Each structure stands twice: as structure tokens, then as C-alpha cells.
Amino acid sequence: MNKDVIVACDFAGREQTLNFLDRFPEGEKPFVKIGMELFYAEGPAMVREIKARGHRVFLDLKLHDIPNTVRKAMAVLSRLGADICNVHAAGTVEMMRAAREGLGPDALLIAVTQLTSTSEERMQRELLIDADMPTTIAHYARNAKEAGLNGVVCSPLEAGLVKENCGKDFLTVTPGIRFADSAADDQVRITTPARARELGSDFIVVGRPITAAPDPVAAWRRCKKEFLGI
Ligand code: C5P
């Protein structure tokens, strides 16, 4: 799958989501991320409807449970036709293998290493992980690769580290993106689309700089242009 911008559709419901997608002209179909809020509000029908409109979909549900449950849940999700699904790498290699089996080979499967909202200090003090953050991320990414996953979610600043450990074809899907002239909101370590490309991101996940822009279509085009260098 080629590099692309994935728009985080962090909307509360179907109407808001479709109002947003309706702003895009026919023939310009952003790659869409559906997260827990929208999925829990509207259910699997929302994924089917957005797929039927011709969008590619990253279903960001971050599964983390016993391997048998994750295998069966992923088998159910595989029927929705999402292009990317994900799990927490903390669920172990066995759980990630089960997820891969359940999802099948058609969709990409990626893992969250450590959430970017988790600081190194909290990871060590609360989760009792002794290693530093880069060591932990590299190790979790190698676990994901060993389990047959296609890549990880990480900060663009960690994309190089992941590629060094897992190879250049192992995908990095990176949030925390802001235009040079846009608000940081609650994101702390932010990167521009052009810098994310330089750092080796395969997919950037962009929410508010596009969804809250006065002209979301223009913001999405600008983001694609900067990230893809076209
Ligand atoms: O609006 P913004 O561009 O900050 O949205 C980023 C999206 O990426 C949100 O859906 C957020 O939940 C998601 N995300 C993130 N950091 C992670 C994992 C996911 O910002 N580590």
C-alpha cells in the first residue's frame, strides 16, 4: 500500500461524519480512521457505509485481550473490509499471532507499541517497565514483526528506530502531525507532514488540522502535498 494521509474522523456520530465526508468532491476520497468513539456510537454499519462510499479505512480499535478472544474478535472485524486494523503489542506475541490468524491476510495489521500519551517516567513507575522508551518501542516492534504483523503505530520521531530494528518494509503509522502554522492542541511532540516524510513515516494520521480547519478539503490537499512531496 502506498504512503498516504489518514484522516482521523474523531466525530461523535454518523451525521457529523458524513457531513464531513460529503465536503470532498467525487473522486477525492480520503483514507479514513474510525476510532473507538465513532465505532462504539454507530457500530459496524459505519465501517461498511464508509467503505461503500469508496474510502479506505483504518479501524483503530486497539484490541488487547486473551489470544482466543482477540482471534475471534478479529475474525468478526475482518468481515467489515477495513484496510488496516490494530492491537496493543503489550498483549504478547501469542496474542498478536492470534490477531493475525483471525484477521486473515487481506488487511494490514499493526500494533501500538507504547501510547504517545505514556511518558517514560510513568511507564517505568506505573507499568514497572525498567527499560527506557526507545528500547521498549524497538522491542515491542520486533515482537510485532515476529508475530507476522505489518507495522506499528508510533511517533514519526521513532520511525527511524523502528525501521532500523524491523526493516524498511515494516510500516510506521504516525500521529502527532501538525502544520508549521497550526495549533498543537493536546499533542506534545509534534512533526510537520514534510518532516514525517523525511523521518520515514509510511502513513500519517491527522485529525484536527484537517477536521477542524475552516476548509477541510484544502487542509487535506495541503497535507497530502507536503507529506507526499507532490
Ligand atoms: O487531532 P489529532 O491530529 O491530534 O488526532 C490524532 C489521532 O491519532 C487521534 O485519533 C488520536 O486518538 C490518534 N492517536 C494519537 N496518538 C497515538 C495513537 C493514536 O494521537 N499514540
Characterize this entry briefly.
The chain is of the alpha/beta class. The chain has 11 helices and 8 strands. It has helices spanning 14-21, 36-42, 44-52, 67-78, 93-103, 120-126, 133-146, 159-166, 193-199, 208-211, 216-228, and strands at residues 4-8, 31-35, 57-63, 84-88, 108-112, 151-153, 171-174, 203-206.
What does this protein look like?
This protein has 230 residues and is α/β, with parallel strands linked by helices. It has a single domain (4-228), classed as Alpha-Beta Barrel (TIM Barrel). It has helices spanning 14-21, 36-42, 44-52, 67-78, 93-103, 120-126, 133-146, 159-166, 193-199, 208-211, 216-228; strands at residues 4-8, 31-35, 57-63, 84-88, 108-112, 151-153, 171-174, 203-206. Strands 1-2-3-4-5-6-7-8 form an 8-stranded parallel barrel, surrounded by 7 helices. It starts with a strand and ends with a helix.
Write the layout of secondary structure elements.
Layout: E1 4-8, H1 14-21, E2 31-35, H2 36-42, H3 44-52, E3 57-63, H4 67-78, E4 84-88, H5 93-103, E5 108-112, H6 120-126, H7 133-146, E6 151-153, H8 159-166, E7 171-174, H9 193-199, E8 203-206, H10 208-211, H11 216-228
Parallel strand pairs: 1-2, 1-8, 2-3, 3-4, 4-5, 5-6, 6-7, 7-8
Helix pairs in contact: 4-5, 7-8, 9-11
